[in-house]
């Protein structure tokens, strides 16, 4: 795996680099009956400098060792993990864990991560990396750099829908409704957007959608409940 690849991207956490500089970036957790292992790392100068800023964090993540595609976070069974002797709360996981406050950041201090699990035949990967916390405004800016949907794109989608309805319901008088109210906030949409993977013309407010996902990351379209990940979102003016 290359630096920054392997794990599913976190849209609110921009990957900067991996920290375990004295070790391989990824360590496999082998499938044995019970597993106990320690990982040591020293924060390099770049990390030491970066974490003095509030929006930079050190994240600890686990996922399955699976090269078939980007992996969502996944904890090994019965995971217990300690960073410099302090046990992390893994209840409600899997999720990326912010371990910044538990790390010794000076270049001469050794950090110790102790992991234990009961192995059940799967390989897991552990990663410690430096990330930059992005804000809702950062994501809106990124969204605005993408090519927005044109009037023609929307017209094509409407025609497609009308054809579909005509065939299935045998009627030509069909009304396609699109509300200017965001289905999430029930207020007027400020930044209209939708996922290119969705088949509806109803849009939602990107600002509200990002706020919701900043609190709890699930990236599900509020209109049709299909996955609507950041890369598939476009502004639909
Ligand atoms: Zn949808």
From TrEMBL:
Domain SP-RING-type: 167-237
Pathway involvement of the protein, from the record: Protein modification; protein sumoylation
Keyword Transmembrane helix listed: no
Pfam families documented for this protein: PINIT (PF14324), zf-MIZ (PF02891)
GO annotation, biological process: protein sumoylation; regulation of transcription by RNA polymerase II
One GO CC term on file: chromatin
InterPro entries noted in UniProt: PINIT, PINIT_sf, Znf_MIZ, Znf_RING/FYVE/PHD
MF-aspect GO terms: SUMO ligase activity; transcription coregulator activity; zinc ion binding
Family, as annotated: Belongs to the PIAS family.
Protein name: SP-RING-type domain-containing protein
Source organism of the structure: Cherax quadricarinatus
Lineage of producing organism: Eukaryota, Metazoa, Ecdysozoa, Arthropoda, Crustacea
């Amino acid at each position: 795996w290359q630096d920054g690849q392997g794990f599913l991207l976190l849209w609110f956490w921009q990957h900067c680099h991996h920290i375990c500089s004295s070790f391989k970036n990824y360590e496999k957790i082998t499938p044995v009956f019970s597993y106990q292992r320690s990982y040591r790392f020293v924060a390099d100068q770049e990390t030491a400098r970066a974490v003095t800023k509030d929006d930079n964090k050190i994240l600890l993540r686990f996922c399955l060792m699976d090269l078939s595609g980007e992996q969502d976070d996944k904890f090994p069974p019965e995971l217990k993990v300690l960073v410099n002797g302090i046990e992390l709360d893994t209840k409600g996981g899997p999720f990326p864990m912010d371990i910044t406050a538990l790390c010794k950041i000076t270049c001469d201090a050794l950090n110790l991560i102790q992991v234990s699990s009961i192995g059940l035949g799967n390989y897991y990967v552990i990663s410690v990396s430096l990330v930059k916390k992005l804000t809702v405004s950062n994501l809106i800016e990124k969204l605005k750099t993408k090519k927005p949907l044109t009037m023609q794109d929307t017209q094509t989608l409407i025609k497609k829908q009308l054809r579909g309805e005509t065939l299935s319901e045998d009627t030509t008088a069909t009304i396609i409704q699109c509300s200017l109210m965001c289905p999430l906030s029930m207020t007027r949409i400020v930044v209209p957007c939708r996922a290119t993977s969705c088949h509806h013309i109803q849009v939602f407010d990107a600002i509200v959608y990002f706020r919701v996902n900043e609190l709890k990351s699930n990236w599900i379209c509020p209109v049709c409940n299909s996955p609507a990940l950041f890369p598939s979102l476009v502004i639909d003016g």
